[in-house]
UniProtKB/TrEMBL annotation:
Entry's family note: Belongs to the LysR transcriptional regulatory family.
Keywords: DNA-binding, Transcription, Transcription regulation
Source organism, top-level taxon: Bacteria
Name this polypeptide is given: LysR family transcriptional regulator
Amino acid sequence: MQVLDPDLLKTFLAFVDGGSLAQAASVVGRSPSAVTAQMQRLEEIVGEPLLVAQGRGRGLTPAGEDLVGHARRILAVHSEAWLALKGARAAGRVAIGTTQDFADSGLPELLRAFATSHPRVRIELRVGRSAELGEALQAGQLDLAIVMRKTPANDEVGLFSEPMLWLCSQKGLAVREEELPLALLDPYCGFREAALATLDAAGRRYRIAAGSASLAGLRTAVNAGIALTLRTARFAHSGIVEAPRELGLPPVPMAQFAIRLGQGAERPARDLAALLSDNLALPGLTS
């Protein structure tokens, strides 16, 4: 019996979650040709085709769809075993910085898993904005950080992408007007830059109807129906939903995020960075 290599399964799930081989290549840090070779190797092991031509891209065969659930379970058990063996005797502290989106969605579950496998490690958590967290990491105030990626950095140990979405109150906009009302974080914000650049390129008129220095303020403005905003699916809860198609909003790019590890980080921080790199991306999203 041949073994299902976890690296091959990670690449397979990167395709499933990203929707294309090119996106999978970006997520796993390999060339598109290397990703294609990995998928061919996985098909050889399984003994059946996993991908099929679908329009301009590729989709999953029935065997591919069956493999998705198995792959997620195999990688979850693999990660659990790896953490348990490495973390049982580890001690010390890990200072982690994250943006509010991940503090609300995804990170709590992974910190729980880390605390279970590293019971003697103290966690210090800092929530802030990407630029601030990057500066703190470089200053040695953080061991690792989850940030929105603006430019490549030498300390990146994990990359993943999630679709940006136009979001609004589930009750809709309070007032319909010719100019599109936007709620945006104060500069600098990658989502702000993407929203304005996209609307400018599309020739769509807009006005900044609400600004905030925090995601809590942004959420209040969007929930009130004052304006819509641009974030990821992590922000779409508690009364906030994807904006309806009738608004005719232009398509937006993927948001790219990085797990960055500080220079000289000790083993517990490296273990946590590996756990986040493998598991933080939202499953089941397509580009």
